[in-house]
Design goal:
Blueprint lengths: L2 H10 L28 H7 L2 H13 L8 H14 L2 E7 L11 E3 L1 E3 L5 E3 L3 H5 E2 L19 E5 L6 E5 L2 E12 L8 H21 L8 E15 H4 L3 H6 L24 H16 L4 E6 L5 E6 L2 E2 H21 L2 E4 L12 E10 L12 H20 L1 H6 L22 E2 L2 H12 L34 E3 L4 E7 L5 H27 L4 H16 L11 H10 L7 H4 L6 H9 L5 H48 L2 H26 L6 H29 L10 H4 L4
The protein binds adenosine-5'-diphosphate (ADP) and magnesium ion.
């Protein structure tokens, strides 16, 4: 049998392992498992003394400092709960600058000295850990010889249990810092940015006449795109195994042109996978809501109900982990890379984002009374100003090597940051900026010529799929995140820049009110001024089009095409000033992040280049040579000439790649990354181009790698 058929046949032979589908009746009480593996508020209330419980909740609700003397009681309750559920070990679960999560397991059990063991877990062990963390990226913050790093309990994100057939692990979400107290992770700046935004928003709400809210939370609901392919193919592709993306592969005859996959019915095996993933996530308290097929073949999406940003980001990391774990049970591999298949749509993460008071009032809900509208205009205006003022930083927050293959391609937002407001909102802001009456649609708005405020549309129906930052009814959707990235860093940036503009606008509001202006007049004046300056960021047309690139350049919007162009914005003066003012990151901490990101870029491309060279030399070239011998033996001159020419091009291209990647110039950091981008990546591209041509002519039984036409269509 030809190779492709052997593989397809065996991959397609998958059958449900374990339970048959549909055996679990979730309406039965005993089967309701949502949050079963979370040390939730309900569980805490059951197990903690009243005063301990209420202090813990105050910490969570209002960001109040936790009295560490209570930690012993929390630890005891947490341990009892975990042991009852079969846990044997615990870990401080954290998010170092690798962008992944990290864990080091410790047993609960201590030898008792009499040949037995007792379970022990103290408040100290709950609050602080000291992983031997010398190998995490620090960007120079911590020298290896003094490699102490500390993890510190984050009581605002509940502990949870990860199950394994052979035991369970108690995971305690923690922050990770150097012994000097500098942030080495993604959680610390996120929490600091949430504090900054809360202070700024509370100040604004007071000026707006709202006395009740004590804290404002940012919320996030990330939609996650991913691919599923049969593991049979995955393990035969060294590029997928090592790099998470294919470095070779000719475009298949069929892609997504027929749009037959998007929102299509979900094949049984995939649905079985999704159901189990959702069940597992449900136990961890991740509120998964939506699933559907995405645009590319074998591409899917999962989305939760939104939550507070800290928990939402922790849950995102868990979601990616569970998705990958469960896939293996179904003979699948879940690919989270931004661009696993060249020429096929890549994967992103849509970061739905809003701000909410502690009473649950969404500050980006347009509402339908003038008072709510005032507040909405103020906060939405602040977001618009923030995105325009810090567009480069926002772009830098989503930069990664994988993103470079996606942003600005024919499927993902361009590298230019712009905002889609929707027709009606754009008209309202435009009218305010011009001090004119809104040309209202019948019945939809009041005029703006008087201080009588407009009835804002509850949900403006139009959509723009090409916008990187879109208003969608009562939230903004930052659509340019990469599928594999932690949402914590982009959210940190978003929170911080919005905190800054809310603060700036509040200063103006305060001054105007002191000067005797009414709230209405003051807010209209402030929004008018701000929008007039920042409306260049608003764009409703096709973000993929050539015209937009020209128009954006005319408007003076940044177009940072690649990671190496974007990263310097992490350490721009304006960024440092902003982050220091709001106490989110110090200059040194920002520089560390910049250094880590530059190095990660270089390392990633280097690994890819070595993998590409090795695949080309040890898999593709031998296949090409065998094929050449075959056509020579057959004596068909045209085929000999065609093959020979490609083989020679391949040998030359491999030589170029090996040379480019073995003689890096003596430069570091960003300069090194630029060399990788400008010299090594193109050399990889050249090897691929010839190899992909060879794939189309070499005998199928000689071709060593599963093809796109196989990987993308077997479900
Ligand atoms: P769509 O993007 O297709 O309009 P939805 O309206 O269902 O989809 O919302 C998409 C995501 O936005 C969901 O994950 C949802 O939880 C999230 N979301 C909704 N409201 C908010 C909010 N106030 N803050 C953050 N995320 C939100
Ligand atoms: Mg959406």
């Amino acid at each position: 049998m030809p190779r492709t058929r052997i593989h397809n046949v065996s991959a397609a032979q998958w059958s449900a392992n374990g339970d048959a589908l549909g055996t679990r009746d979730l309406t039965e009480l005993t089967n309701e498992s949502f949050g079963a593996n979370v040390f939730s508020a309900a569980e805490q209330r059951k197990r903690l003394p009243k005063h301990v419980y209420s202090q813990l909740r105050a910490t969570v609700a209002r960001g109040e400092e936790l009295d560490t003397s209570l930690a012993d009681m929390v630890a005891q309750a947490m341990k009892d709960w975990a042991l009852e559920k079969g846990a044997t070990h615990y870990t401080h679960w954290f998010q170092p600058l690798t962008g992944l999560t990290a864990e080091k397991h410790d047993s609960f059990y201590m030898p008792a000295g009499d040949g037995t063991a007792i379970a022990d877990f103290s408040g100290k062990e709950l609050i602080q850990g000291e992983p031997d963390a010398s190998s995490f990226p620090t960007g120079g913050i911590r020298a290896t010889f003094e490699a102490r790093g500390y993890t510190a309990w984050d009581p605002t994100s509940p502990a949870f249990l990860l199950e394994n057939p052979n035991g369970a692990l108690l995971c305690i979400p923690t922050a990770f810092a150097s012994w000097t107290g500098e942030a080495l992770d993604h959680k610390i700046p996120l929490l600091r940015s949430m504090d900054a935004l809360s202070s700024a928003a509370i100040r604004a709400l007071r000026l707006l006449g709202e006395q009740a809210p004590q804290r404002v939370f940012t919320t996030v609901g990330p939609e996650q795109e991913y691919f599923l392919i049969d593991e049979q193919y995955y393990f035969e592709r060294p590029d997928l195994v090592t790099c998470g993306r294919t470095l070779f592969g000719a475009k298949p005859p069929k892609g997504h042109e027929l749009d037959d996959h998007y929102f299509g019915s979900i094949p049984e095996r995939i649905l079985a996978y999704m159901l189990e993933t959702e069940l597992e996530l449900g136990k961890l308290g991740v509120p998964v809501k939506t699933r559907h097929n995405e645009v590319a073949p074998n591409q899917y999406e999962i989305a939760p109900v939104f939550e507070g940003t800290n928990i939402g980001c922790d849950h995102q990391m868990l979601t990616m982990q569970v998705m990958q774990n469960v896939a293996r049970k179904y003979g699948l591999v879940c690919l989270l890379h931004e661009k696993p298949f060249a020429g096929v749509n890549g994967s992103g993460k849509h970061n739905n984002w809003s701000m909410s008071t502690d009473a649950g009032e969404n500050l980006l809900e347009p509402g339908d009374t003038p008072h709510e509208n005032l507040s909405f205009l103020f906060f939405a205006g602040a977001v618009i100003e923030a995105v325009d003022s810090y567009q480069e930083l926002l772009r830098a927050s989503i930069a990664s090597p994988g993103q470079d293959f996606r942003l600005g391609a024919n499927e993902a937002p361009p590298a230019i940051i712009s905002i889609f407001l929707g027709e009606e909102l754009e008209r309202i802001f435009g009218a305010i900026a011009e001090g004119k009456t809104s040309p209202s649609k019948p019945g939809s708005f009041l005029g703006l010529g008087t201080p009588v405020l407009p009835q804002l549309p509850l949900h403006s129906g139009d959509r723009n799929r090409t916008s990187p930052f879109a208003f969608t009814g009562n939230k903004f959707e930052f659509r340019a995140l990469g599928s594999s990235m932690s949402p914590a860093w982009p959210n940190t940036v978003l929170n911080t820049i919005v905190a800054e503009t809310i603060d700036r606008l509040s200063g103006e509001l305060e001054a105007q009110l002191k000067g005797g202006a009414t709230l209405e007049r003051a807010i209209l004046a402030i929004v008018k001024d701000s929008y007039a300056k920042h409306s260049r960021i608003v764009f409703a047309g096709d973000g993929y089009s050539e015209e937009w690139h020209a128009e954006a350049a005319r408007r003076g919007l940044a177009n940072l095409r690649s990671t190496t162009e974007a990263l310097p914005w992490l350490v721009e003066d304006a960024t440092v000033k902003l982050f220091e003012k709001h106490k989110v990151l110090s200059k040194r901490e920002l520089e560390a992040r910049y250094e880590v990101a530059s190095e990660q870029y270089t390392t990633t491309v280097n690994i890819e280049a070595e993998t590409a060279a090795s695949i080309a030399r040890t898999l593709v070239l031998p296949a090409a040579l065998r094929h050449l011998a075959l056509v020579k033996e057959a004596g068909v001159e045209r085929l000999v000439a065609e093959t020979q020419e490609l083989v020679e091009s391949l040998v030359a291209a491999i030589g170029e790649l090996e040379r480019a990647n073995s003689s890096h110039p003596h430069v570091e950091g960003l300069e090194h990354a630029k060399y990788m981008r400008d010299t090594v990546l193109p050399a990889m591209g050249a090897v691929r181009e010839v190899a992909d041509k060879l794939e189309r002519i070499i005998a199928d039984d000689l071709w060593p790698l599963p093809k796109y036409s196989e990987m993308l269509f077997i479900k």
